[in-house]
Amino acid sequence: MIIENNLFLLFFGYNFCMRTHHDFSPVKRRLLRFHPSAFLLVAQLIMLILYAIFDGSHSQRALISAFSAGILVLVVWVVSASSSIAWLTWGLAVPTFVLSVLSAIFTNTILFALSSLIEAVLYFYTAGSLIAYMLGDDRVTTDELFALGATFTLLAWGFAYLYMVCQIWIPNSFVSSMIIDRPFTFIEYLSLSFTNLTATGLGDIMPISPTGRILVMLTQFTGVGYVAMVVSRLISMSTQKRIA
Question: What residues contact residue 53 under an 8 Å CB cut-off, 6+ apart?
Fold first, then answer.
């Protein structure tokens, strides 16, 4: 039943986005009034709870991933003004959805790794779209404030999926002295991602392979760079207001 509902939502979203720009522009304007970035941020937090509940089940985790891909497509469609971007977004979302559902049905690790890899790209692309959306004008709206938090969660999710793919394709890339009798769960990968993005230095999982170490370094660099971008933008806008 869950798979049927997700297929219906994906089919409906595809037909909806294929309408002409003239037809759905008023709809996008109305949706923008409801702060789509806030919707995405809340959805991400709900997904966090769902992962905590169903993280031990491969099929449930795959279905949650498919559902989250649909949420990302909706938000990117709302905040983007280019119809060409819609094609690129669906080009990432459809394979993610299909592979996630197939991996849930057949419990196939390779399919799940491929879907996770594409989903990581989709998360990073959505984060980039929100950053472009926030930098698109010289004022800060309420939705852009929500986008600040939503973008950070998107980056964390993206790197968590990359960690998981790395561990599948290169076993023992990440190790822990406290977790030795089972595979890492997605929540544990996500915790590692948040730890490195925020540079808190907390965590019990360590990268030991070269690929794992590089991914962790990229996460740390991205986290510091994102914070620097936000701070510099706020300072720049504050200076412009004083000059005006």
Answer: none
CA separation for the pair 96, 79 (Å, rounded): 21
Cβ atoms within 10 Å of 167's Cβ, excluding its own = 22
- Amino acid sitting at position 228: A
CA distance 59 to 44: 19
- How far is Cα 224 from Cα 21, in angstroms, rounded to an integer? 37
For residue 40, which of 86, 2, 74 has the smallest C-alpha distance?
A: 74
pLDDT tens-digit readout, 136-172: 777 777 778 888 888 999 999 999 999 999 999 999 9
Domain parsing of the chain, residue ranges? 2-243
> What is the rounded CA–CA span in Å between residue 143 and residue 180?
43
N-terminal to C-terminal alpha carbon distance within the chain: 58
